[in-house]
Inverse folding.
């Protein structure tokens, strides 16, 4: 059996982290819905009913949604790098740095939601992802 490409490890780590946030989201959301005696209504405007929950509960769902956005580009780039055989120290370092920054972003958003801090972490993670994408693009040329 052939060993998995090392570039796939950061991708699966971020997938697993996403499921940690997913579990945390429901572990806080369901009790909050029950405590508020909320009757879920599919005819209300999307997000309107959840906006009635406490901010600390909503932050987990917001972060889960964020993990469905930009990280999709990360998965594509990492899979491409694995396909072309890049297991360089630089690419692996960038990939793991991106994952680490996304975890930090999650913790900031879910625990304190300090927007200025969150933005800086997001911006730095975006630059790391850009660097990883540029590395992939250069290898394809």
């Amino acid at each position: 059996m052939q060993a998995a490409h090392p570039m796939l490890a950061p991708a699966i780590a971020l997938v697993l982290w996403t499921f940690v946030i997913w579990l945390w989201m429901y572990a806080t959301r369901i009790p909050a819905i029950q405590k508020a005696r909320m009757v879920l209504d599919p005819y209300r405007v999307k997000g309107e009913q959840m906006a009635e929950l406490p901010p600390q509960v909503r932050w987990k769902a917001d972060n889960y949604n964020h993990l469905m956005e930009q990280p999709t580009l990360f998965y594509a780039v990492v899979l491409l790098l694995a396909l072309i055989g890049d297991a360089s120290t630089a690419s692996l370092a960038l990939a793991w740095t991106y994952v680490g920054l996304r975890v930090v972003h999650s913790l900031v958003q879910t625990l304190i939601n300090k927007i200025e801090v969150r933005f800086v972490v997001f911006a730095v993670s975006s630059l790391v992802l850009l660097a990883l994408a540029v590395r992939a693009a250069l290898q394809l040329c």
Remarks:
- Helices lie at 8-35, 55-66, 71-83, 89-111, 115-140.
- DSSP finds five helices and no strands in the chain.
- The first helix runs from residue 8 to 35.
